[in-house]
Amino acid sequence: MNASTISSRRLLSSVCRRSVTSIVRGCGPALALRRIPQALHRRLPLVHSLRTITTEPHLKSAATAAELSPSATPEPVLLVSLSAAKQIKAINKKSGSNSMLRVTVESGGCHGFQYKMDLTTEMDDVEDTVFELDGARVVVDAISLDFVAGSTLDYVEELIGSSFQVTNNPKAESSCGCKTSFNVKF
Description:
Number of strands: 12
Number of domains: 2
CATH superfamily of the largest domain: HesB-like domain
Radius of gyration: 17 Å
Structural class: alpha/beta
Strand content: 25-35%
CATH topology of the largest domain: Hypothetical Protein Aq_1857, Chain: A
């Protein structure tokens, strides 16, 4: 074993110890690599910093995102729609701040889990992942990202009100009519 292999193993080991998700699921190389997007920069030209993923607009107003897992069946990440990005930017312009929309998943609601969304300027460099589209940033912690991976964050305007919504969640078995709570497929 050479020095870089030993150094890489120590880094993966320290990431596994710090990651709550790793403790819950057990720590394997694919999971550890998913927490270190910088190691994948050659494969992911859209990643421009350690914890930020920049996306480009898709024809149907959703954004495509870089994949974080190097496995044969890549795990998708959170997609941000153009309408969600525009609304985040409008909120920041009106308030004069540079806030991010934090998406978290908590236990509760009528289906067992619920989405919670808040504006924040703070983030944890170890546990949070930032998704950016056209200057609008969305931050998701590691545990919540496991629940929303493959979903789309959208901003929906309806007669009864407007809101940010997580849509097309592949991990949700069913959801409430208000689209805030959901069941998880096991």
